[in-house]
Amino acid sequence: MRERIKAGPAQEVVEYLFKPRALTSPGRDFRILLRINRAHVVMLLRQGILSSEHAKALLDVLSDLESQGVEALPFDPGLEDAYLNMEHAIIQRIGSDIGGRMHTGRSRNDIYATITRIAVREALPSMAGPLLSFIGLLLDKAEVHTDTVMPGYTHLQPAQPTTMGHYFASIACALERDTQRVLQVYPRLDLCPMGACAFAGTGFPIDRALMARLLGFDDILESTLDAVASRDYVSELLSATATMGVTLSRMAQDLYLWCTNEWATVEVADEVAMTSSIMPQKKNPVTLEYIKSGAGALQGALVSSLTVQKGVNFMHCQDMSHEAIAPVWDALDKATAMLRLAHRTIEGLTIDRQRLLQRARQDFCTATELADLMVRNKGLPFREAHGIVGNLVSEVLAQGAPWDEVDSEAIDRVALRVSGRQLALTAAQVRECLDPTRNVQRKTTPGSPGPEPTKTLIASVRSSLAHHSLTLNAWAEHDRRAQHNLVEEMTTLTREG
Q1: Are strands 219-220 and 157-163 parallel, antiparallel or unpaired?
Q2: ∠481-486-490 over CA atoms, to 5°?
Q3: Of the CATH numbers 1.10.40, 3.30.420, 1.10.10, 3.40.50, which one belongs to the domain with range 367-434?
Q4: Superfamily holding 11-104
Q5: How far is residue 407 from each of residues 158, 359, 397, measured CA to CA in Å?
């Protein structure tokens, strides 16, 4: 392989370039390389480029390597990478006259572009599965808490009554869109680079479509230059993963605040908490901290990959084939860990329903409904009603009086001062307005926190989850059929030989 280069690789090159890339995931790359090599041998035979005798010998030695496993393949860093180590092992076993023919009509450029696509294609569902599972858990919690009334916040200030069920369902909605973005990467990922060779294709009559089918791809990546020069599916996946991480982080930030003594409305289970080495009273919600900080790592992976790519010529090079891809593995592992920790944390979360309801009664979040009542029942312009209630809130705060005990006399006193007229609201009307539970029940428009709209929202997201699960299953089944077909092809060729 180094005929043009007379000196062996420098130790630094071996240590910092060859070894890390070859040893990142040797078992995975070994398995995918076997699959690619087998498919390529089958294709070469079908096209009359290899004789049946040579093809059978190559398939037999590949089967021997598989049975021995990656541990039986000694790695020589001087051979640069896993592919050349495997090729070297094959040639040692059956000689260069046969072993050396396997590389006909291809290059490491299209081989490694294909390895990474298959590897990412396998890894994507491994993250999407926990994502769908977590959304399902959120929906379960939403169903349990459709009547758990709590203050809703804007600008981190009490705003209007809502429910914990609506909160969980809303997070599920956002994560379902994140799921769409993750899964939408797959069709552009599921394209086969094999046959592109170095970048200019080959003069041998290879069958790229057959290679794509045998390797479980939906189609070929049409341009041979694009096939080895582009890694945009990595950018897409990292972007979708980073966006999902932001959603998880924002949810974790909410729970992080609500766990504090100052909020004291939720509590994480003991199993996901840590204590202090010095302060015995501490119960630290560390999983939430991991989720919050993990979003930064996912964003960093996206920026790292894009930064590598931005100044690279449109061609094959190590920048694109290795460095631009490197962040994706840690990012997918990090995202999966965040989802599993979020699942375990929400699963064991204790929610103080009574404290939440009491907060909603006393923190002025029913003020908007009082203004709306003045508009509905007394025909006031909303801006005037807003002014009356705003002044009423100021007066209640100044007096240190309980908001949920405001009566019609207090309202009339403020209304007369602000607008020159009394409203004469009944005690029952005022009580109903200041009841956060009735506030929520009044919200019946689509997507709002009322019980029925929330149930509809939950059902809608569940329907989407079912569709996404079917999609993942279909992809997995397609790949299983492709692997089965490859085995059938090899069996037939071996029998014919």
Answers
A1: unpaired
A2: 145
A3: 1.10.40
A4: Fumarase/aspartase (N-terminal domain) (1.10.275.10)
A5: 21, 19, 15
Q: Considering the domain delimited by 110-354+461-472, tell me its CATH architecture.
A: Up-down Bundle (1.20)
Taking the chain, what is the end-to-end CA distance rounded to the nearest angstrom?
31
Share of the chain above pLDDT 90, in %: 88
CB 325 within 8 A of CB 230: no
CA-CA distance, 474 to 476, in Å (whole number)?
Answer: 5
Secondary-structure breakdown of the chain: helix, strand, coil percentages, each rounded to the nearest 5 = 70, 5, 25
How deeply is 252 buried, as exposed, middle or buried, from its count of CB atoms within 10 A (0-12, 13-18, 19+)?
buried
Q: Give pLDDT, residue 77.
A: 76
pLDDT band at residue 295, thresholds of 50, 70 and 90? very high
Q: Write the pLDDT tens digit of every residue in 120-146.
A: 999 999 999 999 999 999 999 999 999
Would you state the structure tokens that stand for residue 311, as one six-digit string?
């100044």
Amino acid identity for residue 195 in this structure: G
The percentage of the chain sitting over the pLDDT mark of 70, rounded to a whole number, equals 97
Q: Is the pLDDT of residue 160 over 60?
A: yes
Prediction pTM value: 0.93
Cα 172 to Cα 82, 198, 336, 363, 457: the distances in Å are: 42, 45, 17, 27, 10
Within 13 A of 193's CA, how many CA atoms are on the CB side?
28
| Domain layout of the chain by residue ranges | 11-104, 110-354+461-472, 367-434
Sign of the Cα torsion 100, 105, 108, 112 reads: negative
| Six-digit token string for 420 | 């020159």
Q: Are strands 191-192 and 219-220 parallel, antiparallel or unpaired?
A: parallel
388-438 residue pLDDT tens: 999 999 999 999 999 999 999 999 999 999 999 899 999 999 999 999 999
